[in-house]
Amino acid sequence: MPKTLFQVDLTKPMDQQELPGHNRWHPDIPAVVSVNPGDVFRIECKDWTDGQIKNDDSPDDIRDVDLTVVHVLSGPIHVNGAEPGDILVVDLVDIGALQGDEWGFTGIFDKKNGGGFLTDHYPDPAKAIWDFQGIYTTSRHIPGVKFAGIIHPGLIGCAPSHELLATWNKREKELVDTAPDLRTYGAGLSGDKPVLAALPNPKNAILGQLPKSEFDRVAVEGARTVPPREHGGNCDIKNLSKGTRIYFPVYVEGAKLSMGDIHFSQGDGEISFCGAIEMSGFIDIHVDIIKGGVEKYGMVNPIFKPGPVEPRFSEYLVFEGISVDEFTGKQHYMDVHIAYRRACLNAIEYLKKFGYTGEQAYLLLSCAPVEGRVSGIVDIPNACCTVAIPTAIFDKPILPV
User: Fold this and answer.
1) Mind listing the pLDDT tens digit for each residue in 222-234?
2) β 4-6/40-45 pair status
3) In whole angstroms, what is the distance from residue 241 CA to residue 264 CA?
4) CB contact at 8 A, 71 and 5
5) Could you tell me the pLDDT band of residue 66, with boundaries at 50, 70 and 90?
6) Quick one: pLDDT band at residue 192, thresholds 50, 70, 90?
7) pLDDT-derived band of residue 187, with 50, 70 and 90 as boundaries?
C-alpha cells in the first residue's frame, strides 16, 4: 500500500486536523507535503461538507448545510520540479472508501440554500443514504435499485497563480454585478432567488497552515471551490475513475495539487447539486511532469484519458428533451440547459409510474451511472438532450409494454 501523506480523522472538522487542508483556492496556501515525479502516494479526504451530513433518515442536515464550509480539500501537494507552463500528469491509481465508513449520501438542497437543477420543481430538502457492499451500493431510501459505482474525485486541480485568481474574481464579480439584487451563494441569507456565482467569502475559510498574519488577506481573496475553472477544480466528471490519467496545467511552482469531494457514483450532470453519492475516502496517486507542456499542446483546461474500470451496461432507456420551457411553453433557441432539464423531467415522470416518488427519481438520476448527452445542436430551433438510464440497475422491468 502506498504511504499515506495526508490522513484525516473523521471525528474532527478539517480545520482541526493534524494537517489541515483548505476550502478556498489561493496560490499562497502552503503545501502540506512535497513529492517527486514518479512517486505513488495515498491521500485521504473527508466528504465535501466536512461531515455535516449524518447516516440517518432525516433531511434536516441537508436543509441546514452551511455552504460557506465547502468544499474541504486535502492538500496542497508540492510536486518537486513543477513550474508554471508545465503539465502535471496525475494517475488515479486507486480510489476507495475509508475502513469503517462505507456509506455515502445523496441530497436535494432546499431552494433557499443552494437548490439544484430542478429546484423549481423540487424545492424541499431530501436525502438518500447509500450502503456500500464492495463495488455495489443500495439505499434504504430508494428501494429496488442496485448498481456498481464509478468511484471518482469530484474535485481535483492545481493552485491558480495570482494573475489567474484575479481573473477569476474579476470576471465572476462582473457576472454577479449584472443582477445585483440576487443573493450571494453560501452567505447564509434566506430567499429563493438564484445565484450567478460564488464570490470570495472569508466566513469559515480554511487555509491550511497559512500564517495568521496572512490569513485575513487570503481569506478575502481566495476563490470559492464551487465551479470548475481553467485549473480543473469541481468538474464532477464521473469518468475520472481508477486508471484515469489527468493532465493539468501548472500555474505556480510545485503545482500545489489538491483534491476532495469523492463520489462513489454519479450521473452525468449531478443534477440535484448534492447529487452524487458523496463519501469520505482515499485516493492513490502517481505524479509526473511534462516540461513546457502547456504551450506545446495548446492547453487551456485539463485533459484526461479515462481508465478502464467502470460498470458496463448494454441496455438503456433513453429520454429526450428539447428547448421548450415546461412552464410557459415558450420556444427557446438551441438552449441545452432547458433541453437537458426537460429530458430529466421526462425521465422522472416516467419513473413515477413505477412506484417512485419524484424526489426518489430525481435523486436516482443524479447519482446512478446515467449517461447524459447533447445529442443534437444544429437543428434549429431545438437543441436535443438525452438522459439514458441503464435498465439493469432496477430489480424489475421498467420498459413500456
Assistant:
1) 999 999 999 999 9
2) parallel
3) 10
4) no
5) very high
6) low
7) very low
Grid cell listed for 212: 495568521
Q: Give the per-residue SS3 of the chain.
A: CCCEEECCCCCCCHHHCCCCCECEECCCCCCCEEECCCCEEEEEECCCCCCCCCCCCCCHHHHCCCCCCCCCEEEEEEECCCCCCCEEEEEEEEEECCCCCCEEEEEECCCCCCCCCCCCCCCCCEEEEEEEECCEEEECCCCCECEECCCEEEEEEECCCHHHHHHHHHHHHHHHHCCCCCCCCCCCCCCCCCCCCCCCCCCCCCECCCCHHHHHHHHHHCEECCCEECCEECCCCCCCCCCCEEEEECCCCCCCEEEEEEECCCCCCCCCEEEEEECCEEEEEEEEEECCHHHHCCCCCCEEECCCCCCCCCCEEEEEEECECCCCCCECCCCHHHHHHHHHHHHHHHHHCCCCCHHHHHHHHHHCCCEEEEEECCCCCCCEEEEEEEHHHECCCCCCC
pLDDT at 292 > cutoff 50: yes
Per residue in 301-319, pLDDT (tens digit) is 999 999 999 899 999 999 9
